[in-house]
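I am writing to request your help with a piece of structural work I have in hand. I set the record out below, with my sincere thanks for your time.
___
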Amino acid sequence: MERRQFGDSGLTCSALGFGTWALGTTQYGEIDVQEATRAIHLAIDHGIDLIDTAEAYGPLYCEEILGKALGGRRKEVVLVTKVGFLIDDAARKIVGRSSEPAHIIARTEGCLKRLQTDYIDLLLIHWPDHKTPFAEVIGALEALKAQGKIRYYGVSNYSVAMMEECERYGHLTANQIGYHMLDRRVEREILPWLAAHRIGFMAYGTLAFGLLTGAFTPETTFVEWDWRSGGKAFGLPLFEREWFLKELHLVERLKAFAADYGKTVAQLAIAWVLSHPEVTVALVGVRNPRELEENIAAVDWRLTPADFAAIDALFEAEGVPTYRDAEQAL
């Protein structure tokens, strides 16, 4: 498994990361927890040593499942989690955002308990709360680092302006934002800025939240409590009916493109992200060993400039936007 370094930090990990949002049974469809646990262990066996989670996934369920699943294998992985939401623990419901220092510190303690560990390799602020001064946010993260509760810190879903302010008070190890063939907004400003400042980039949504797996059909629907049922995906209309049908037609053409290489469309989606040198790790949600094996087989595939051009031509032919110049809702 290829390994990559987070910017100028001493933190390295596998190029493919295990994303656990799909383990949040209240947000992302039905899963088999036992199968997911087997997939986690199989991932580690195959060299995937970064596992990404958050207290908001579930909420709380994902960290609990992961803590139990890792067991004695905790030290074999780079464990990433995120804080920054206000969560009603009793109701297991997100009720707002907060990056206030006392909140960050208190919620990190909860993450440690649920994950059954005494340190977190990389702690991220999940979303900006738009009210807490960044000096205070970084101060809290530096305090946790000094206490040995975390090894490195970073952010998720932060703009360039936000990161520039954070860098006045400390040094970020990573920013984690959605990035896939159907959403290229980070290419315009964020990826170049991260590369220039030697900060790692974690791409989530590599498979476009299922769209690039090839599993959906025009008849596919989502249960009411699946977040995709609302149509929007981080500010983009990916699951709104008109665009969903266009995207499915594009996926069929991408399937044929991948088949020419003896690959699946999901493998193409992973290779597309990892072929961008600014990407440190591509996160992929895995629910079972079969999906994991398919994903691992894509890691060594690097697309050529001709491949990228051919893919872009398919987008243009199908009238599907890449949203590169769209604003991100941060």
